[in-house]
Amino acid sequence: MSKIQGVNAALVVSELSSDDWQRLRELRLASLKYDGSAFGGNLEAESEFTESDWRQKFTKLEFIVASIDGSDIAIMSVEKMNGDFGARCWIGGCWVENSHRNKGALRAMFAYVDKHAESRDWQIQGLGVWIDNFAAISAYKKLGFVEMGEPQMSTRKPGLFYQRMIRKTPQ
C-alpha cells in the first residue's frame, strides 16, 4: 500500500491478493455495468463467476486498486508477459469510477507500476484500447503511451478493433 506523491492526498494505491477476491469482483462488475463497452468482458458471464473463478484470476494477473477513505474507486490488472513491441507486461481492465475521473487515480496506479517496474520487470508496458475510445486513448497518451502498429481485430468482440499502445517507465 502506498500514498503517491503529487496526487490526491486521500488516494491510496494498493495491490490485491487472492483473499481480496470480493473487492476484485465488485470493481470488475461495476466496470462492466457502467462502462461495459470499454472492455472485452461480459457482465452477464462474469456475474456468474464463483469465488474459485475470481481467485483463479490471481494466478495470472496482479490487480492494483486506488481507494479513497477505504472505498475502492479504480482498478487495473498487470500481466507479466513478453508482448508485442517489447512489452514486458500487459495492462488490462483499467477503470475509474465516473465521479473520480480526471482526479489522479489512473496516474496514481501507473505511478505504483513505475515504482515496482524494475523489481517486477514491468519497465515496458503494453495495452489495447478500442479505437473509438478517444477519452481513454487521450488519458493513456498523457501517461506516456504511444500508439504502435495497426489496429487489430478483437477475438472476444468480433467486428471491433483495438489499438496497441506501449509505454516505457519514465527514468
Q: Features of this protein?
A:
alpha+beta; eight-stranded mixed β-sheet; 171 residues
Helices and strands in order, then pairings?
Blueprint: E1 2-3, E2 11-15, H1 21-35, H2 43-47, H3 51-56, E3 62-68, E4 71-80, E5 89-96, H4 105-120, E6 124-130, H5 134-142, E7 146-153, E8 161-168
Parallel strand pairs: 5-6
Antiparallel strand pairs: 1-2, 2-3, 3-4, 4-5, 6-8, 7-8
What does this structure look like?
This protein has 171 residues and is an alpha+beta fold. Helices cover 30% and strands 32% of the residues. The chain has five helices and eight strands, in the order ββαααβββαβαββ. It has helices at residues 21-35, 43-47, 51-56, 105-120, 134-142, and strands spanning 2-3, 11-15, 62-68, 71-80, 89-96, 124-130, 146-153, 161-168. Strands 1-2-3-4-5-6-8-7 form an eight-stranded mixed β-sheet, with helices on both faces. β3 and β4 (71-80) form a beta hairpin. The longest helix is centred in the middle third of the chain and has 16 residues, at 105-120. It is globular. The chain starts with a strand and ends with a strand. The mean pLDDT is 93.
